[in-house]
Design goal:
alpha+beta; two-stranded antiparallel ribbon; Eukaryotic RPB6 RNA polymerase subunit; single chain; Pol_omega/Rpo6/RPB6; Rpo6/Rpb6
């Protein structure tokens, strides 16, 4: 190996001129080749993310809990909502910003424009007339959530 200084004075190693087949087959210094069966016997997880049973067959991992079906189970019904029907200033800001962005990207406007061209002013007018087609999702501390439409919020 040749030790050389680069243009900024940094030192780096150049690659050898040729590789031998032994370079590819032998493990790096200090490493041992371990059979996957031995690794499983020692209690280490399989690197391919496969769970093995006692008789050596692969077993399916448990299904994740963050699926769409699991999320739908956590939705609170409209008649059992516990949060206030008032839109917070943060929800208002996010709704107006999102709707103004949609309008600026040529989404259909749901109110009479009357010469208005500013997307934010159009979004404010849509909110005032309760025409914004967005839903506010409020997450609760227990992991459930409530969905409120902009028409429902005061």
């Amino acid at each position: 190996m040749i030790l050389d200084e680069g243009p900024a004075g940094d030192e780096y190693d150049e690659a050898p001129e040729s590789f031998t087949p032994e370079d590819y087959e032998s493990p790096a210094a200090g490493q041992d080749i371990v059979d996957p069966e031995e690794r499983r016997a020692e209690g280490e997880p399989d690197p391919n993310n496969i769970v093995h049973s006692e008789n050596g067959k692969a077993v399916n991992k448990p299904t994740p809990t963050n699926t769409v079906a699991a999320q739908k189970d956590k939705k609170v019904d409209k008649d059992k909502r516990m949060t206030t029907p008032y839109m917070t200033k943060y929800e208002r800001a996010r709704i107006l910003g999102t709707r103004a962005l949609q309008i600026s990207m040529n989404a259909p406007v749901l109110v009479d424009l009357e010469g208005e061209t500013d997307p934010l002013q159009i979004a404010i007018k849509e909110l005032r007339e309760k025409k914004i087609p967005l839903v506010v999702r409020r997450y609760l501390p227990d992991g459930c959530y409530e969905d409120w439409t902009c028409e429902e919020l005061l």
